[in-house]
Design brief:
heterodimer; A: mainly alpha; 0% strand; rod-shaped; B: mainly alpha; MetI-like fold; 2 domains
Chain lengths: 67, 334
């Protein structure tokens, strides 16, 4: 039982590693900033703040994940 | 001797009682300050740390966090300070929706982005070039480093004012020098007053002021490259050009990225210098988003709307700052 539990925890830890999640959050922030200042589509501009906010909150959360 | 419950008038009496117990001074009062000292000593390191940090935290809460929370609250209201007698009305996300569908704000953000891209690109080119020159360790290079760093040390208000004077079409030396080289009459053009020239004017002044900062960071990067790498490259007969592309540039790149991110964040918030130079004009050619925010808050008095705009800008800068800190940590790990 404890072996299964250890495997489960190991899988969880592997899934919630900080590196890739931080990368994804930073990509979201960068995409949001580009959407905010791009001159082509006002729809993209309209969704930019939500994107930046999601990226920033995501970054704050995932920076507490284990390495 | 003093009777029980009384204390000494001065600490010297207390000290005398401790050193000379037979002296005619009261010992009960003398023990009072020592009891307090003993109590402090009995505190754990953690408690003492909290004791020192608490005033700073209280100050931060009062002058940073409280205004931010208050501004978030205001951003959901229709508050207009020119009509503050009206009751405060909760409007939900209306202010945010207004801003994120406003063509004018969108154009101001594009102007800001153009300003950021132009200034950062020029600052990196000039700053990196200067760093390569200064890194050659020629005679009196320390003197020239100091001279180059001078603009960075000036206040943006001072820079804005004296460049306004330099750009004066009638008496300013800038137009005179341009006239000398091109043959154009000095008073026939105005750097801050013409639609085609004003954006380049603010780019020029910002580059003049902040290229030295980029130079400083690049210089730190260049000095961190060990000499033996270049020596090995010379043994392999690598040309100076090849050394630059294969050694210098890759090793300075993290520092360069740091400078780019920092300058981009700072220029996104740029207000004082541009406000003094052009005030966003002519028309709204150089109106950066920070100037739009100031106008909405303190000229139109749309407090709720401007609070929402300020929150949008804050979240954008905060997000960019997260990326900046991450890049900084990567440079530290090198």
């Amino acid at each position: 039982m404890s072996g299964d539990h250890a495997i489960g925890t190991g899988r969880l830890l592997r899934w919630f590693r900080r590196g890739p999640w931080e990368g994804a959050a930073m990509t979201l922030i960068a995409a949001g900033i580009v959407m905010l200042v791009q001159p082509w589509s006002i729809d993209l501009y309209g969704y930019s703040f939500v994107t930046i906010l999601a990226g920033t909150l995501g970054f704050v959360i995932v920076s507490h994940f284990p390495e | 001797m003093l009777s029980s419950g009384e204390t000494y008038q001065n600490p010297q009496d207390a000290m005398t009682a401790l050193i000379h117990p037979d002296a005619p001074v009261d010992r009960i009062g003398a023990e009072a300050p020592f009891r307090a000292m003993k109590r402090v000593r009995s505190l754990s390191d953690r408690s003492i740390a909290w004791l020192f940090v608490t005033p700073t935290i209280a100050l931060l809460l009062a002058i940073n966090i409280f205004p931010l929370v208050w501004m978030i609250r205001l951003s959901f209201t229709s508050l207009n300070l020119s009509m503050s007698y009206l009751p405060l009305r909760f409007v939900g996300l209306d202010n945010y929706a207004d801003i994120l569908s406003d063509d004018d704000i969108w154009i101001r953000l594009q102007t800001t982005a153009q300003f950021v891209i132009a200034t950062v690109a020029l600052e990196v080119l000039v700053g990196f070039g200067l760093a390569l020159l200064i890194n050659r360790q020629f005679r009196s290079h320390s003197f020239w480093t100091t001279i180059i760093l001078l603009p960075m040390m000036l206040s943006p208000a001072v820079v804005g004012n004296f460049w306004t004077l330099l750009f004066q079409p009638q008496i300013g030396p800038f137009n005179y020098v341009v006239g000398l080289f091109t043959g154009i009459a000095p008073s026939s053009f105005s750097m801050t007053g013409e639609v085609a020239l004003a954006p380049w004017t603010i780019v020029l002044v910002d580059t003049w002021m902040w290229a030295p900062y980029v130079m400083l960071i690049c210089l730190a990067g260049l000095r961190s490259i060990p000499d033996y790498i270049y020596e090995a490259a010379e043994v392999d007969r690598a040309s100076p050009w090849r050394q630059f592309w294969s050694i210098t540039l890759p090793m300075v790149m993290p520092f360069l990225m740091l400078a780019v991110l920092f300058r981009a964040i700072e220029n996104f918030k740029m207000f004082d210098m541009v406000n003094l130079l052009t005030s966003g004009g002519p028309g709204s050619t150089t109106e950066l988003i920070s100037i739009t925010l100031k106008r909405a808050a303190f000229e139109k008095w749309r407090t709720g709307y401007s609070s929402a705009l300020a929150i949008i800008l804050f979240v954008t800068v905060f997000g960019a700052a997260n990326i900046y800190v991450k890049a900084l940590n990567r440079v530290k790990q090198r």
